[in-house]
């Protein structure tokens, strides 16, 4: 899909388990009671989202769109364990409330006082791409600034279940983290990057089919594979690990690299277990297509 109107990535933030400990969360969240109740996943997601918003007033955000492939696994596990231990009687509702998929989006809205469209997508390996599609459409409909992001976490119980299902048998590294982007209808700094288009495809693809997918996508912009620089998400995942919304981390790294790439356009390629595939075209601000 080629964006109908120009869409720019004006800010981006990434928080994972290792960087979370280095953040001054009390200065970011500014609500001790809310911070105390947040699990690790919510802390990562809220921190990344709030870092993107920073000094922007509540009325400067027109939509919040988030994504997750599995949601709050830690609190889901707590709630399910308690159901078993207490025979479904006298359950504590707090872990259930924290485990719902839209917890991060709603927490950001509450902390910032944002009262706008707020949506969360849970579409397995294409969760973040679905949120990104929505964010782009929001701007095409006249919105100025849209906060879009994704988050997922690792838990011991979930990792064991994934291993039993046959995952991570080929030396893959499991990952987690949260990445958020402030998308706007105009660039707000010299480091802004234009998000020119995106497309997705489901089902297994061999190398030839992947090249055809990329060629067909670029042809819609009058481009070929030789006229863009390719950013392979697999290289990023060697560092951050594989998880359902790792494509958000891939886009974060690609946006940081786009300004220094040798070509005017950067094609960001991502694949999740060869079942979900996405392409994002980034363009240097001011570069023509």
Can you describe this structure?
Residues 36-157 form the Beta-ketoacyl synthase-like N-terminal domain. It holds the Pfam family Ketoacyl-synt_2. It comes from Candidatus Cryptobacteroides gallistercoris. The protein is an alpha/beta fold. 40% of the residues lie in helices and 22% in strands. It has a 9-stranded mixed β-sheet, with helices on both faces. A hairpin with a 3-residue loop joins strand 8 and strand 9.
What is this structure's SSE topology?
Blueprint: E1 8-15, H1 17-20, H2 25-29, H3 32-37, H4 40-53, E2 63-67, H5 73-85, H6 94-99, H7 103-112, E3 117-121, H8 127-140, E4 145-152, H9 156-164, E5 177-184, E6 193-202, H10 207-219, E7 229-232, H11 233-240, H12 246-258, E8 265-272, E9 276-284
Parallel strand pairs: 2-3, 2-4, 7-8
Antiparallel strand pairs: 1-5, 1-6, 4-5, 6-9, 8-9
Pfam families: Ketoacyl-synt_2 (PF13723)
Protein name: Beta-ketoacyl synthase chain length factor
Domain Beta-ketoacyl synthase-like N-terminal: 36-157
Strand order within the widest beta sheet: 3-2-4-5-1-6-9-8-7
Mean of residue pLDDT values: 91
Alpha-beta classification = alpha/beta
Tell me the major beta sheet. Answer: 9 strands, mixed
Shape: globular
Q: What is the CA-CA span between the terminal residues? A: 15 Å
User: How much helical structure, as a percent, in the residues?
Assistant: 25-40%
How many helices? The count is 12
Count every beta strand, where a strand is a DSSP E run of 2 or more residues.
9
> What is the string of helix and strand elements?
EHHHHEHHHEHEHEEHEHHEE
Q: pLDDT under 50 segments (min length 5)?
A: none
Radius of gyration: 19 Å
Strand content: 15-25%
